[in-house]
User: Fold this.
Amino acid sequence: MNALVNNTRLPTSDLYPEVGMANGIELATLEQLKNDWVTSFDWEKQQAELNQFAHFTAEIEGLTIHFIHEKSKDPNAIPLLMLHGWPGSFQEFQPVIEPLTQTWTNTTGGKKISYNVVVPSLPGWDFSSPPANNSWTIHDTASPGIPYLRTALQMTGQGAVIGYDLYANYNTTARAAHFVIIPFLPPTPDQIAAQNITLATDEQESENIFVDWSSVGNAYFAEQSTRPKTLGFALYDSPVGQLSWLGWIWKNMSDPNAGTAPSQLTNTAILTSISLFYLTDSFYSSIYIYEQNPNPLNTVYAPPATDAPMFFSQFEFSPLYWPEEYVAKTGNLISYKFYDVGGHFPSWDNPPAIIGDIREMGLYYNV
Assistant:
């Protein structure tokens, strides 16, 4: 792969560098990622780190599904199903899996919390086979989604759509859920104002980011929803092409200070994610989730028939923003937290926040 990356020809100059990321990934950013891929990125080392987790595959509804299953040493550990989105993968949760298996003691009351963590690769991602037909939906993925009798959930991206399906429709088994995204269209500034909701400065920044995403930032969504073959074939055998397409998502939707503590979202993490897509030939199959599910966000807010506790963490630089008042309409909301550090990939951008909030969720599990 290094030869393919090294021999890829890029433009000699960026026509309009002053527009920054607005028109896509900047040439300087792409060049830096490409050079890192060739000169300093160690795939063997990253592969060894990923292989420290316990990997399995299972046949489910005719599909081969890959998953990580990391168990706590605590016999009372809570089952936790973590579901990724795009362009994430099981690797999206790499910084938080091992800490969540460790026992944490709540300072108030002394309750001990730890998790048995299950992280599947969605159909068509990495080592999971793609659906056999194009009629497969996110709801089809949800139907066999709970491997335990009772479980807690944590989700990002499209994984939140699947997870919300589980939360809403499997209320005897999905007994607690932590979201960073909900499958409801975020409100516009006019809708927020009509509800007499006043936003703090950093919350207003989040709303501005959503407005930009909904007008021009979601162009990738439209392309993948309508022309996945064109895009998939065009980039199939081009690691730098995939780097350009995916790199913009990773860079533009994360915290501007990504890679600075507490963030662990370095170029190495991004290159590991893109290497997984390229080496497993799954970039093409992964983007089909958009064509198969072109309208994943509901426009009508309504609570599901479940009393399971719901936890929500809003990260300032996520492309989607929901005020607490809107999240409360979609479940039994116990906790809403706003973080000024983090974006669309919070397990990389702000691991301590994700770990802390999931541990807090454990205090309410099995209620």
Summary: The two ends are 50 Å apart (CA to CA). The domain at 2-7+14-362 is CATH 3.40.50.1820 (Rossmann fold). The chain has one domain: 2-7+14-362. The mean pLDDT is 93.
